[in-house]
Every structure is written in C-alpha cells, then in structure tokens.
Amino acid sequence: MKLTRTRLAVCALLALPATALAMPAQYVGPTPWTGAYIGAHAGINQSSASGLNTENSLTAGVSGGYRMALANSTAAPIILGGEVFADLNAQATHNANVSYGSDVIGVDLMAGYPLGEDQALLPYVKVGLGNLQATGDLGGSDIGGRLGIGLKYHVRPRLSVGVQWMTQDANSISNDNFTVGVDYALPMG
C-alpha cells in the first residue's frame, strides 16, 4: 500500500511541473505566493515501525522558505519554491510495551499552480528529504524521502492558511502527517 501511494504521489509530482517544461520559463514579478515566508503547523501524525502497530499522535512544526513565479502562456504563473522544516511527532504506545515518536528536520521542494481570479488558492505538490530521529523506546535515525500534497489560501495580503499531507519512509519507520497551518510572508525590500 505504501509503495502504491508513493508511486501515485511521484506521478502527481511529475505531472504538475511538466507543463512548465514545455514552455519558455521566465521570472515574473511578485504574486501573492512569491518571496520569503515563515510558518507553523499542527495536526495528526500516523507512524509505524517494522513489526509494530500503526498509531496516531499529535504533531507540530515550523518551516521557512522562498517561492518564485515562472511565467507561462496561461493566466497564472507556476510557483516553485524551497523550504526547510522541523516536525515534532509526539510519542504513542504502539504495542504493549513499546512507545515511540519521532523528530524530523529536512528540506522540501514544491511546485504549485495558483487558482482563482485573484490567485488566492494554491494547490501544490512537494518532494524532499528528512532526517527522522526516533524517540522513546526506539532509537536511531535515518534520512528518507518525503512526498506530499497541500492546499493554501491567502486570507490577508501577508497571511495564508492551509492543509497538507506529507509521507516519509525512513528505513524501519514511516510517518504520515496530516496538518493545518499558517504562513506569514516576510516584507520584501
């Protein structure tokens, strides 16, 4: 099931920016989605380790990054960006005497396409790498690939809210995070 979900996410990731590759890319001026930003998110983490039950716990994290817009022949530009993040996933009891959680830090790349007359809605895909550090009864860390999808909405000129799903497989531990969050666009210039 994880393999099928991973393949589906990779196909979605490759399909979104494919249209941008067929068109000449050029930088476009500021849109609601360009520039530096910081953000915070919280939600539910679903984690599993080899031989243990899958359980839910709370997750919270912070992120920061930069997005730019590439012009194309349609009304809205393609949005591309990079982000650094840190996620703290609380511990949960997975089997009778095994309780663990995880902390993850890493980098993600994103591609999105603004929708709406004012381009206030941004569906996007992400791909990245994260260093997953097991906490509690499990130890060790491993770097694993991350995939995800999300949707952001501008509620104010510098403020956006969003929902996101990210999945990561790192050796013997897998994480799925379902979060809601807020981003603040930093002033430019």
Strands side by side in the biggest sheet: 1-2-3-4-5-6-7-8
CATH architecture: Beta Barrel
Question: Spans with pLDDT under 50 lasting ≥5 residues?
Answer: 8-29
N-C termini distance: 47 Å
- Helical fraction equals 10-25%
CATH topology: Porin
> Proportion of β residues?
over 45%
Average pLDDT, rounded to a whole number, is 82
Largest sheet: 8 strands, antiparallel, barrel
Number of helical elements? 1
Q: What is the level 1 CATH name?
A: Mainly Beta
Question: How are the SSEs ordered, and which strands pair?
Answer:
Blueprint: H1 2-21, E1 35-49, E2 55-70, E3 78-95, E4 98-112, E5 121-136, E6 141-154, E7 159-170, E8 173-185
What does this entry look like structurally?
- With 189 residues, the protein is mainly beta.
- It has one domain (2-185): Porin (Beta Barrel), CATH 2.40.160.20.
- The chain has one helix and eight strands, in the order αββββββββ.
- It has one helix at residues 2-21, and strands at residues 35-49, 55-70, 78-95, 98-112, 121-136, 141-154, 159-170, 173-185.
- The protein has an eight-stranded antiparallel beta barrel.
- β3 (78-95) and β4 form a beta hairpin.
- The radius of gyration is 17 Å and the shape is elongated.
- Mean pLDDT is 82; it is low at 8-29.
- Residues 1-22 form the signal peptide.
- This is Outer membrane protein beta-barrel domain-containing protein.
- Keywords: Signal.
- Residues 11-184 form the Outer membrane protein beta-barrel domain.
- InterPro entries: Beta-barrel_OMP, OMP/PagP_B-barrel.
